[in-house]
Amino acid sequence: MHAGFARSLRDSLQALELCHASRRASLPFLSESSVDSERWLSDEDEWCMQRRSREQLMGRAELDRVEKEFILNWNAAAQTKPVHGDLFVPGRVEAFAREHAKTLARTPDLRRCFINFCMILWDYCILDSATVDLLSTIVAAQP
Question: How many domains does the structure of the chain reveal?
Fold first, then answer.
C-alpha cells in the first residue's frame, strides 16, 4: 500500500467541505451545520463535491489510478449519506461494501484498497475485528 493512499483517505475524512446549492456562489459549510437525513445533498452539491474531490486527487502523483477511483467512490458515498459520528461509521462502511461488492470482488486492486481502508479504520478503533471480518465476507461472497 502506498503511504500516500492512507494520507489521502485520512485527508478526505478530515476535510469534508460542502457547497450549498441554494446560493449563487458556492459557499463552503461544515457538515456539523447540516441536517441529519438519508440524502441531504442536491445534485448541484454532489457535482460540486465530486469535482472538488477529483481536482484534489489529480494533484496526488503518489496515488495510482485504482486508489484514486476508490477514494472518489468513498467520498461520493460519504458525501451523499454523511456520517456524523464514529459510532455510525461501521454501518456506513457496510452499506458501501454491499453497494460496491460486485465491483470490489471483480477488481483485486480495488478490493485491496477497500481492505486497506478497513484496516485504517480498525487502526483508529473505528471498526472492530468482527466488522472487518463481516466486510471482507460481504466482498468475498460475490460471484
Answer: 1
Looking at 81-128, list the stretches that DSSP marks H as alpha helix, in order from N- to C-terminal side. Answer: 89-99, 101-106, 108-123
Question: What does the DSSP 8-state code read for residue 22?
Answer: T
Q: Which pLDDT tens digit goes with each residue over 72-122?
A: 888 888 877 877 888 889 999 999 999 999 999 999 999 999 999 999 999
Q: Which distant-in-sequence residues (6+ apart) come within 8 Å of 138 by Cβ?
A: 94, 97, 98, 101
Task: Give the span between the Cα atoms of 77 and 124, in whole angstroms.
Answer: 20
Rounded to whole angstroms, the Cα distance separating 84 from 91 reads 12
What cell numbers appear for 32 in the block? 456539523
pTM for the whole structure: 0.65
